[in-house]
Amino acid sequence: MKRCFIFVWAIFSATLITETTAASGSVELDEYSFHKVIKKFEASLVKFDVAFPYGDKHDAFVALAKDSKDVEDLLVAEVGVKDYGEKDNEELAKKYGATKDNFPIVKLFVKGKNEPILFDDSKGFSADELRRFVREKTGLYLSLPGCVKELDKLAAKFINADQDKKKEILKETKAALEKIPEKDSVAGKIYKLIMEKSLEKGDEFTKLENERVKKLLNGKLSEEKKKELGIRLNILQSFQLVDKQKSHLKDDL
Predict the structure, then answer these.
(1) Which of 67, 24, 29 is nearest to 48 (CA)?
(2) pTM to 2 decimals?
(3) What local confidence, expressed as pLDDT, does residue 246 receive?
(4) Strand partners, 46
C-alpha cells in the first residue's frame, strides 16, 4: 500500500511540475533540442538556471514570456541544469558560460550572429529590463512602460520615412494625440517632440538623445526623475526598431 501511495504521489508531483512549467509561457530546452529549436527563430531569449527555478528573477522571466507570447519571431526558453544524477544540460550550460555559481544567466541568440548576447542585470533583473534588452538588441516589438502602441506604430514608420513623409506622419501623430486617453497624454507629447526635433536636427537626433538620456540615468536622480527619464528612453527605442521587424507594428488603421 505504501509503495502504491509513493508511486501515485510521484506521478502527481511530475504532473504538477510539468503544468507549472508549461504555464510559464516559456519553452523547456535540453542539449538535444536546443540548437534544433533556436535556429528556427529570429531571436531566442534563453535562461540557464537550476532545474526547478523559483524567486524574483524567475518570476520576472516568466512575466516576460507571458507578455511576449504573440511575438512570433521571439522564442523565450529555459534550460534547466541539474548538478546531480546524470547532470542534465550541465555541459550545454557551461558552453555558454553558465554554472551553478552564476545562475540564472540569460542570453539572447540572434539569427545571423555567431555569439549570443549576455543580458546585463546590473540595472536590475526585471521584466521591463528584459523587454528593453530584447527590443534594443533585436528591434522586435515588445511594449515597454510609458509606450503607446498606436504611437509606436507611427514612430516606426517615421524613422524609416523620407523628409516629406515624416512631416505627414507628424501630422498623423498630432491628430492621434487628440484621441488617446488622458493617461497617455504626457507620453504622447514626448513622441511628438522627438519627431519635431528629428525633423529639425536630422536622423541622428534619436541616437544622440538616447545616449544623452542613458548618461543622465547613470547619475544621481530622484526616483520620480528616474521614472520620467526611463519612460523617455522607452519611447526613444520605438524610433529605433529595425526595418525587418516592422511587421510587428503593421498599421491596421
Answers:
(1) 29
(2) 0.69
(3) 43
(4) 77, 107
